[in-house]
Design a protein that fits this description.
Rossmann fold
């Protein structure tokens, strides 16, 4: 394998023809869909009717009226407003799912199921549908009902400890000599 086969432009259209529904909000889920769009996927961003995605208002606003975070997170996507909690919004999503390849969501576990849009329902409409469910602690287990963001994950994992205390230098992990036998 030569190096020119690994050039970024070789992957530019790797997902051409892939249809993605992005139901996610706030960073992890939407960036997953953004990366698929970067490689050619047709991504439809589903935003809440009336208010849109909250990230549109998160951070520094530009002359266009959108924030820098939104311009990064929403790039290469088309948007549609739907309220998935309503019969009309749920029906529109079902029609979109029928022709989609991938659905990305990051609601709290059980949310889609409460709206009658759980994986069993969506995959009955489209058995080929790949559903990416991005959560802090997974769909099941003792912490699945807890929300999470990067800073919470850093604290939970212990990595925040390395930042140290206020007015002090960052901590460094203890060095242990490597022993070979």
């Amino acid at each position: 394998m030569n190096g020119e086969n690994l050039a970024p432009e070789a992957f530019a259209g790797a997902f051409d023809g892939l249809k993605v529904l992005d139901l996610a909000t706030f960073i992890a889920g939407p960036y997953c869909a953004t990366y698929l769009a970067e490689f050619g996927a047709d991504v439809v961003k589903v935003e809440l009717t009336g208010s849109g995605d909250p990230v549109r208002k998160f951070g520094t606003q530009t002359d266009t009226g959108d924030t820098l975070v939104w311009l990064s997170e929403g790039r290469n996507k088309r948007s549609i407003e739907l309220d998935l909690r309503t019969p009309d919004g749920a029906e529109t999503l079902r029609r979109l799912v029928a022709v989609a390849d991938v659905l990305v969501e990051n609601f709290q576990p059980g949310t889609l199921e409460r709206w009658g849009l759980g994986p069993d329902v969506l995959q009955a409409i489209n058995p080929r549908l790949i559903i990416a469910r991005v959560t802090a602690y997974g769909q099941t287990g003792p912490y699945s009902d807890r929300p999470g963001f990067g800073r919470i994950a850093n604290a939970f994992s212990g990595i925040s400890y390395l930042c140290g205390e206020p007015d002090a230098h960052p901590l460094r992990p203890a060095r242990r000599p490597c022993r070979t036998t």
